[in-house]
Write a structure and sequence with these properties.
Helix content is 34%, strand content 22%. It has 7 helices and 9 strands. Helix 1 (13-23) runs parallel beside helix 6. The structure holds 5-O-phosphono-beta-D-ribofuranosylamine. 5-O-phosphono-beta-D-ribofuranosylamine binds next to helix 1 and helix 6.
Length: 232
C-alpha cells in the first residue's frame, strides 16, 4: 500500500475527494494513514474521523517557539512513514527541514495556474480576488511538488477554469474547486502512487505522456531513485 499523510487547515473538501476516490476504487493501492491539521477546529479533522483515519492536531499555539512547532510537525508527519505528503489546503509555511526530509515527496494544490497569482500572500480567497481584479478570462488550479521556494516546485498537473462576468471571489473559488482542485489532486496521487512521475531538471515528467513523445521509450521503473514519492 502507498501511504499518504494529508495536511489540512480548513473545511477539507479536497481531503474528502481523496477519501472518496480511494473509496470508489478510482485511486488504487493507496491508504491515508494520518490527517494532520494545524487548527483544532478544522472540519477536515471530522471528515478524517468519519472515514476512520487517524486525525491529529499540531497547533502552533501549543508550542513556545516556531522551532518547537516545526519539530512537532515534522515528527507527526514522519511517524506514520508516509510515501507521500499531500498539502490539501494547509495554511502553514512548510519548514525547510521537512522539505529536505521528503525530497519530491510533498505535493501541494494551489488555486491558480502557477506562475500566476502565487507566492507570498496568495492563499485562500485572495488568489481569486486578485484574479478578478486583474480581469483574467481563465484561471484554474495547479498541483506541484514542494521545494524550498514559495509555489516554485515542479508542476505536475494543471487545469484551466473559465472566469465568468459576474463572478465574485467566492463563486470563482467554488468553481475552481469543483472543476479543477478536486479532480487534480486525486489524479496526481494516483500517478505518483503508480510510479509514473519522475523529476528531471526541475520538471515533473509523467511516464505515458513521455513515452508518447519519445518513440515508445519504456517508462522508468518505479524505485529507480528518481521516481517521485518513493522512499529512498
Ligand atoms: C482550497 O481552495 C485550496 O486550494 C486552498 O484552500 C482551500 C482548501 O479547501 N489552498 P478545503 O479545505 O480542501 O475545502
Amino acid at each position: 500500500m502507498f501511504r499518504l499523510v494529508i495536511c489540512v487547515s480548513g473545511g477539507g473538501t479536497n481531503l474528502q475527494h481523496i477519501i472518496d476516490r480511494i473509496g470508489d476504487g478510482t485511486v488504487r493501492n493507496v491508504r491515508v494513514v494520518r490527517v494532520i491539521s494545524n487548527n483544532a477546529g478544522a472540519y477536515a479533522l471530522e471528515r478524517a474521523k468519519k472515514a476512520e483515519i487517524e486525525a491529529v492536531c499540531v497547533s502552533p499555539k501549543a508550542y513556545e517557539t516556531r522551532e518547537r512547532f516545526n519539530e512537532a510537525l515534522l515528527s507527526a508527519v514522519r511517524e506514520p512513514e508516509p510515501d507521500l505528503i499531500v498539502l490539501a489546503g494547509f495554511l502553514v509555511a512548510i519548514p525547510p527541514e521537512m522539505i529536505r526530509a521528503f525530497p519530491n515527496r510533498i505535493i501541494n494544490i494551489h488555486p491558480s495556474l502557477i506562475p500566476s497569482f502565487c507566492g507570498r500572500g496568495f492563499y485562500g480567497l485572495r488568489v481569486h480576488e486578485k484574479a478578478l481584479e486583474r480581469g483574467v478570462r481563465v484561471t484554474g488550479a495547479t498541483v506541484h511538488f514542494v521545494d524550498e521556494g514559495m509555489d516554485s516546485g515542479p508542476i505536475l498537473l494543471q487545469k484551466a477554469v473559465e472566469v465568468r462576468e459576474h463572478d465574485t471571489p467566492e463563486l470563482l473559488q467554488r468553481r475552481v474547486m469543483e472543476e479543477a482542485e478536486w479532480i487534480l489532486l486525486s489524479r496526481a496521487i494516483a500517478l505518483i502512487a503508480e510510479g509514473r512521475v519522475r523529476i528531471e531538471n526541475g520538471r515533473a515528467l509523467i511516464a505515458d505522456e513521455e513515452a508518447g513523445r519519445a518513440d515508445g521509450e519504456p517508462a522508468p521503473a518505479p524505485g529507480d531513485g528518481r521516481t517521485a514519492g518513493r522512499r529512498q
